[in-house]
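Sample 1 of the test manifest.
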Amino acid sequence: MKSKPRTRERQLKHKHRAGWLYSIPGFIFLILFFWYPLILSFVVAFQHWHPIRPPVYVGLNNFQLVFNHPLTPLVFKNTLIYAGLRIALTFLIPIIVAILIMEMRKSTIRTMMILWFIPTAGVALTILWKYIYNPFYGLLNAIFVGLGFAPQRWLSDKNLTMLCLILPSLIMFAPGLIYIGALQTIPEELYEAAELEGAGFWSKIWHITLPRIRPVIAMLLILAVISAFQEFNLPYIMTKGGPGNATLFAVQYLWRTAFGYMKFGEGTAIAILLFFFLLALTIIQRKFFRENVDE
Amino acid sequence: MKIRKKFMVGLIISSLVIGMLAISAFAAEKKIKIKVWGGPPTTYPSVEKMLETTDAFKARDLYEEILFEATHSGVDVVPITWDMWSKEAGRKLMSGLASGEAPCLYYTGHIGGVQTCIGQGLVADITDLWNAWPPHTEVPAAFMTPAMKDGHVYAIPQDLGMSWAVNYRKDWLESAGVFNAEGKPAPPKNWTWTDYATIMKKITDPKKGTYGGCLPPFLQDMIDWEWDAPVLRPDPTGKYTWRANFDSIEKTKLFKMWHDMIYVDKSVMTGADIWYGEINNAFKTEKCGTLILKTTHLCAPDRWRFGKPSEKYPRFQECVGITFLPAMPDSGGMVPNTLHTNLFAFNPTISKEELKTAFDYYIWHWAGEGRSIYRRMRALVGYAPYWQVIPPYAENRHAPGLPPFTELFPPEYIKVNQEMANLPNAPRRDAFGLSQTHGKEFGDVYISTAEKILCDPNYNTVEKITKALQEGNKLADETALNYKIKGQTMEDFKKYYTALGEFYEKNWPEYYKNYWYPQFEKSYKVW
């Protein structure tokens, strides 16, 4: 009689051990490529780091240099404008589009889902967009000239560049599919009950649809905010931060400082600042954006 | 007993084997291993397979490796494939240096240039090696001064020399009625930016959507850096070495001319997204009638044609002319010597023996027997040795057996290149211990300032341009120029600017009178 619990205990122990063994490769990967660089970056931010000389501790000097750098306010202003515009255009619009699509025929919904699901490689698409914007032989200018308008310098006009960088994000960052998926989980009965009580289209959206997909919106909003503030590929490939630093964002700024000017300490200090900024933003977002459907 | 005997025999034999191995390892010659850039790709499973592909260049790399090892005993050449030119090259080099995987020689342009690297300790001092190589005296000063600091040598030129030039479509100029004094479709001799603007206007066709030329902001920086242009002035307070001088008399004037061509004449294209590749493509796809580029870049592909690769389209040799960069108006045709090369520095983490071997290898590779192999091979496979026009090494300039590239390139091309090489060389600040050690950061500020002006139609007056240039000065002063060179004195400036003044007065008196001296009085004379 006593042997049974012991066997179960042994089985549990075995399972436990197996679980740890299976996780070891993942853990090693995480430690090597995530935790170690993360911890190291906190160390490098307080050092004058050099690739072949021993690092020198400099205290808060790197942070001081970053705060006093004349480009820092401009870079964070650019990043905020870009993130704001990108979230407004690429995050909110798909919610509206997804809701409207749900009102369509089932076959249309399916087609739209397939279209949204077409896989696109980020860098390849960015390069493609660079060609679309090319002032000499770009598709956009060909259409413009064909319609009788003057050709534009899309990526060189400071009034247009920011929007030109956001436009590809409309396609590359497409949460519409996830919204449609979330919308399909809302029970039909809720809408039927609302209709019986005389609720109109907007009323149903406001009182049923949006509260029901709130957890998805909350999760995607956090991801969208983080990815917008960490944007690198688009300006790096398309504008290199130009014209006149108009599209120089935080990550490109830190990359350029560290690897372009070999100021690794200062570059890491920018990364740390960005990290804490995003952390604070996420905490605030989680505090004020309720995720629970029934709250 | 038997077991004991067997054990003893086994022990003796294994001891003998281990002993012999140890003796042979000890006796074996210790080889000096150098990691060189290039080499056969790992994708070929064997030499035979590689040769089957007729990849002559890779075969030559392998041949060179074997030949160098055979003629230099105790050397092990290890070719490694290394990204030397992409946008990511600088970052990869940093990682390679930190991990000990970097090659023994590398291009420094992606990590700030030689002068920056000297300050950072990222390049080895090769003064003794360079001076011990007798033909070093034949390498033109224009190639070497940017590689030196305080009389020490830190880099060697690559095997190619280049210069900034304007390539133009002769057929476009002919159609627009642009002829020089000899009646040929070409810009006039000693042309100025005013002439350039007039020609651009004539060859632009808005209906076809074609432009006379392309003047992207980055060109301002590239052209300036090559000729030691007056974008810097000494700090009069002595607190720092340099202050930015973007708003100099000639820069302000030039920006206004470029801006007018872009927005008033609409005869040239510009853009922050236009770089080397884009201007090159615009010229090749016949969107632009002229192209400002380094001489080696365009002349290489003797095989390509404008339009589709078909016999009916004109070949490069038939319709592209080449000429000097335009001069500033009222400058007496002052054209700077923009002759330069890619500078390669040696890895400072390698040992003294490895450094010497690596130096010997690259001199052999670029200026010795290795180079001859390369030249013979190129002649064999029918390629033009296009970068032989102004090569840094004398061996490459005089060696017999050159394929007749005059057949591939028009005589005027060779002539212009040789004339460029013979232009007088202005004294370089590097030679006076006055290096600008934050080249990349300073260059970025300059390009962003140029973008601000050239990509915005509102900067249409001299006052507005001056204001933008002064803002650029402030940014450069606070970021890239906030340092003082150790031991630098006002005397250094006196020597440098005196030599520079004498140079301009002698070679370009009109430029001296109208541009250089007023600027000297305004901001250079600080002692």
